[in-house]
Amino acid sequence: xxxxxxxxxxxxxxxxxxxxxxxxxxxxxxxxxxxxxxxxxxxxxxxxxxxxxxxxxxxxxxxxxxxxxxxxxxxxxxxxxxxxxxxxxxxxxxxxxxxxxxxxxxxxxxxxxxxxxxxxxxxxxxxxxxxxxxxxxxxxxxxxxxxxxxxxxxxxxxxxxxxxxxxxxxxxxxxxxxxxxxxxxxxxxxxxxxxxxxxxxxxxxxxxxxxxxxxxxxxxxxxxxxxxxxxxxxxxxxxxxxxxxxxxxxxxxxxxxxxxxxxxxxxxxxxxxxxxxxxxxxxxxxxxxxxxxxxxxxxxxxxxxxxxxxxxxxxxxxxxxxxxxxxxxxxxxxxxxxxxxxxxxxxxxxxxxxxxxxxxxxxxxxxxx
Length: 369
Known about the structure:
Layout: E1 9-13, H1 15-20, H2 27-38, E2 42-46, H3 47-79, H4 93-106, E3 111-114, H5 118-130, H6 141-154, E4 159-163, E5 170-171, E6 174-175, H7 177-186, E7 190-193, H8 196-203, H9 212-230, E8 237-251, E9 257-270, E10 273-277, E11 284-288, E12 295-308, E13 313-327, E14 333-340, E15 349-350, E16 353-358, E17 361-367
Parallel strand pairs: 1-2, 1-4, 2-3, 4-7
Antiparallel strand pairs: 5-6, 8-9, 9-12, 10-11, 12-13, 13-14, 14-17, 15-16, 16-17
Helix pairs in contact: 2-8, 3-4, 5-6
Organism: Streptosporangium sandarakinum
Pfam families: PIN_12 (PF16289)
Domain DUF4935: 11-169
């Protein structure tokens, strides 16, 4: 039978969100754990996700360590120092693995692990072979099918919420019709959400009371710093005024601390740039875009922070996404998300898209539909 009130909810969070929210130690992650505890819900962890969590968090930690070692060497050269390296070059892999174990042990009380079974494997393969959702020709289709099989097993006892950024589960903002029909046949409830914010708002529809003017002041200052940082190599663009702010506020375990997600839009003046290369092996250089009018340019910054309502101070301020947009001569706004990387190749003019680079961020501009 379908569970009745009080509903028992089990939340399955896909690997990429475990990674982006650093094992739920970020402001949004803290809000998620509090919401789960307050609702008597649990965190479902299929074996395929736990395996990927361990692999991807280790990879993320090793990449961060490599960047720190390189920065430490640079600082040594600047200081002309011959002392021991600021950051040890020894691999931190054992420490990272232990940290992952410790964090999962901390969460043990709210976890429901779902072991991988031979039945899961067979049914997932059947889905891939028959192109049945969430299989759909994507490179992660088998993993998605294993997650769905685990969710279906949990759904016999729980209402299951899947949080994933993988389009294989979705039609718009909801489960695909074939998956909805499958849930009806099995007489279970499984819902899908594209973000943790959407999930938390489902579980806690009413946001906590807060001084929004104080939060806006934090974003006005820190958001401008983040925007300027993303523009540090855009020599032909200048940051202007704050144009718009969107805030989402969530409660945490500590009553005086709130988790705040923000989106801030700042006006820009000037022209964005693009990287051009002369020939296949020529030297790349940055030039302003001059082949079309640049109307109403702006930069949108998204991120999060923790806000202490007693001290009225913000902490753990993080900007995790930025994009530049402008209106072209045809009246269509072109927009693209920044992709943070330590380097690599850049596709320059791919169809209607224009790609520029700002610092470590690669901007890909695409016409808005």
